[in-house]
Amino acid sequence: MFVVNLFLIIFLIICLLFLVRLLLHRTALIYVLRKWVERIDDQIHVHQQFRVPELNESGQENQLYRKVQLYVNSLASVEDSDYTNLFSSEESNDIVLALEDDQIIRDTFLGARVMWVRIDRSFVLKIKKKDKRRILKPYLQHIHTISNDIEQRGKILKLHMNTNGKWRSIQFNHPSTFDTIVVHLDLKNKIKSDLENFVNSKQYYHKLGRVWRRSYLLYGPSGTGKSSFIAAIANFLSYDVYNFDLSQIEDDDNLNLLLLQTKCKSLIVVEDLDCYISEKSRTGISSSGLLNFMDGILCSSCCDERIMIFTMNSKGGIDFDLLRPGRIDVHIYFPLCDFNSFKGLASNYLGVKEHKLFQQVEEIFQGGATMSPAEIGELMLVNRSSPSRALKSVITALQANGGGGKAAMRLRDSAESSPAPSSATEDGGGAAWKGTVPKEFRKLYGMLRLRSCNRPESLDHESDMIER
Ligand SMILES: Nc1ncnc2c1ncn2[C@@H]1O[C@H](COP(=O)(O)OP(=O)(O)OP(=O)(O)O)[C@@H](O)[C@H]1O
Ligand SMILES: [Mg+2]
To answer: Which sequence ranges form a coiled-coil region, renumbered to this chain (predicted)?
Structure first.
């Protein structure tokens, strides 16, 4: 009898505990209890406080404040708190949560509990004294990493251009990606992994005592995708672009100042470097100033994660020192179209992977004909409603030009340093210049054409990524 009663009592106690647990979880009681426990725990410990003000002593934005703000507002405890502010993000349609003044937000790190409070445009961090020595440094590092991640994920890219010695910025919306540019697949993958390797090699570079920067030279005829490729790199890495227009820069000081004002994780771009170098009316940048700029020595004084990209139509006549290994790490050649790249363009622009006219196009390419991807792309774009018409217009343009194209004309022009011909017309460039090409030019072009058609694979000759 006693044993039965004992079992009954135990059963009742278990049921009661279960009901209390259910009650606590179904109502806010468990939450209230937990809060009380935390408060008591906080009361019996001595805390140390660290204030992160929004502005620094000279009235400028405190970078750490921005990072803390991003970090704290991303904490799950903000979402779970009794009240919080909701804002729509300035840069996207997302809704963001933001801490209210005097609201306490708790966070845990390496087993220690810390508190954040926002007071008078400052964030105050409270850490138990006993934990401070152990966690403060790694915790701040952790905030740094997480906020950088958040920034990178939601980053709106910017294009900065220099005018009158100052940077002006606009949103960078170029839609170019590695998928939209027709480049030999192997080369594309090599470049992607080269970029990724670079981004992950901070320690390695610093161990070698080298500035953490990598420089690329993109060279080749006009309209072969160099500028689009730069945009693709920016989109791939989520880097801002600083486009240095050297003709707008007065002297070395101005060049250095502009370089110092660039932020890390950015692309430093100088387009048409060959034109600038050959220009008689060069600005006051000295040769040594230009070399130092290319070496990125000043980059190391601020934050050194930079990628420098230079473009040229031709390397001919450029001083070897300017392109020497170490100064330019990777040389990438952008060739005119061959049949393979034509097929890539047809697939991108027309959605056509196979077509009965392809054979004819291939024969024309085998005969040495070529045009720039820009010209072929333009013909496809204006005729995109009818792939057959688009392909016929490409065939006509290739044949009509006797295997030539504006790009070749520009190649020849750049070799002779004479002014470039007018750009492609709206109805799809290829044929537009046909009647205007002088005979001697066609002869010269014939030579270029022969040379180019000797290449087994357009991107495989010196084109391929040459690392120096
Ligand atoms: N390889 C390519 N794949 C896809 N599209 C291309 C390619 N090359 C050029 N195009 C298209 O042609 C147009 C011009 O290309 P882009 O401005 O990148 O050429 P570029 O090499 O920088 O010329 P330039 O030397 O005259 O500055 C762009 O609209 C681009 O989309
Ligand atoms: Mg360009």
So the answer is: none
